[in-house]
């Protein structure tokens, strides 16, 4: 059982100045974002009239409160949205969606269904990031006490909404999900992330977690590799000594991301590639919180191509976005 439980909180005295300490969350949101940006890039950002990509992400975090952004942080809602998009465009054969086995607020209820669970599955919160438990009962017995404790923690409000100001997570339904495992026996799926604007994929990347260290590589939509960080950055960006994404899979990613991303001014569509098939992962509105290292050229060029939305404009699909987060779905094991 592999448990990822979110970021660790610092101890005193570091906690007094650390973003995850007890004081930082009480600062005004704009100041928090400025300080996080300063910490990441060593400069003060322009969030009122942003030009860079990462400045525009801060603008979104501070200002954008549209329902279309809210549902993106709700994992169950995004599944339903993607399922409807696939049906509308007759793309069901190109993308699989992991089955939802159980939905609830108490892992003790899931434990009562243990006999019906497959050998491999995952548990995660519907409304947060960086928290997941990968369960493989073939490898070791399930530690239900640990799972129950994790589930109880995960239902609480966390740093995504309390510290970082990622508003959409505060709107998502606070639920727990048991979900189908993606990948074969001993296989670690390749992550594929498509960065789209109005349905156009500006670039994509693959992330490989199968080795001793995580590697990734960025590509333009035509499949050509480019470096994301600056040339002076020593971080290894693997240009791909082996073919990890075929031309066929790349075209599927572009087709799927175009259909899924059309309503959004900017969204990241995350996939998993396992057994030669693409699986839906999630949608991401706050990609790396706009704090990931990037070259000055990429920050400016990708920022120039991101047209920020008019937040006062009516959205004819608002009722649709709100409906995606209504009620509590039931998993396949719940009848």
Along the chain, the helix and strand elements come as: EHHHHEHEEHHHEEEEEHEEHH
Count of helical regions: 11
Strand order across the biggest sheet? 9-8-7-6-10-11
Low-confidence stretches: none
Summarize it.
It contains eleven helices and eleven strands. Helix content is 29%, strand content 20%.
What's the layout of helices and strands?
Elements: E1 2-5, H1 29-41, H2 53-63, H3 67-70, H4 75-88, E2 100-104, H5 107-111, E3 120-125, E4 131-136, H6 144-154, H7 159-162, H8 167-171, E5 176-180, E6 190-197, E7 200-208, E8 215-220, E9 225-226, H9 247-261, E10 267-274, E11 277-284, H10 296-304, H11 318-323
Could you characterize what this model shows?
- With 335 residues, this protein is of the alpha+beta class.
- The chain is built from 11 helices and 11 strands.
- The chain has helices spanning 29-41, 53-63, 67-70, 75-88, 107-111, 144-154, 159-162, 167-171, 247-261, 296-304, 318-323; strands spanning 2-5, 100-104, 120-125, 131-136, 176-180, 190-197, 200-208, 215-220, 225-226, 267-274, 277-284.
- A 6-stranded antiparallel β-sheet has the order 9-8-7-6-10-11. Strands 1-4-3-5-2 form a 5-stranded antiparallel β-sheet.
- A hairpin with a 5-residue loop joins β3 (120-125) and β4 (131-136).
- 30% of the residues are buried.
